[in-house]
């Protein structure tokens, strides 16, 4: 599978210049046809180069592809994983289509859920989805 990744540190400092170190931005990119195990080793080396071990917070932005959660757990266990809006909205769209019936339209549901995720975040949308009346429905019948 093709993977494209970036490791970025917006506030890395060049401490070789002494006490008056100036913040510098550092970004390293990797792309290739490789497995996640190989990619993880390469990306950890790049992370070392931008000083990731000294960062207070690690963030992983993901498209939610298969194996990505495990990839972050193994290679960047301190990272808070965030699913990007585009892919989250796509999954919500699939659910809205599967959920809609005569009284609700998929577009209306998706508009509501997209607005909620932007305004309140993913946890709020998850609570909304969990509160849906599933009487007579099975989550297994919904294509994720």
Summarize the structure in words.
The structure is a single chain. Helices cover about 40% and strands about 25% of the residues. By secondary structure, the protein is an alpha+beta fold. The strands form two sheets. Strands 1-2 form a two-stranded antiparallel ribbon. β3 (about 60), α2 and β4 form a beta-alpha-beta unit. The longest helix is centred in the middle third of the chain and has 15 residues, at about 85-100. The mean pLDDT is about 85.
Write a short abstract of this structure.
The chain is an alpha+beta fold. It has five helices and four strands. 42% of the residues lie in helices and 23% in strands.
Layout of helices and strands, plus pairs?
Elements: E1 2-13, E2 23-33, H1 36-49, E3 58-62, H2 68-75, E4 79-83, H3 85-99, H4 106-120, H5 122-130
Parallel strand pairs: 3-4
Antiparallel strand pairs: 1-2
Helix pairs in contact: 1-2, 3-4, 4-5
Computed structural class = alpha+beta
Instruction: Report on the biggest sheet.
Output: 2 strands, antiparallel
Give the strand order, joined by hyphens, for the main sheet. Answer: 1-2
Helix segment count? 5
* Helix/strand order: EEHEHEHHH
Which descriptor suits the 3D outline? elongated
What is the residue-mean pLDDT, rounded to a whole number? 83
Which residues sit in consecutive blocks of at least 5 with pLDDT less than 50? none
Please report which band the strand proportion falls in: under 5%, 5-15%, 15-25%, 25-35%, 35-45% or over 45%. Answer: 15-25%
- Can you give the helix content as a percent range? 40-55%
Number of strands: 4
C-alpha termini separation: 21 Å
Taking all Cα atoms into account, the compactness measure Rg is: 20 Å
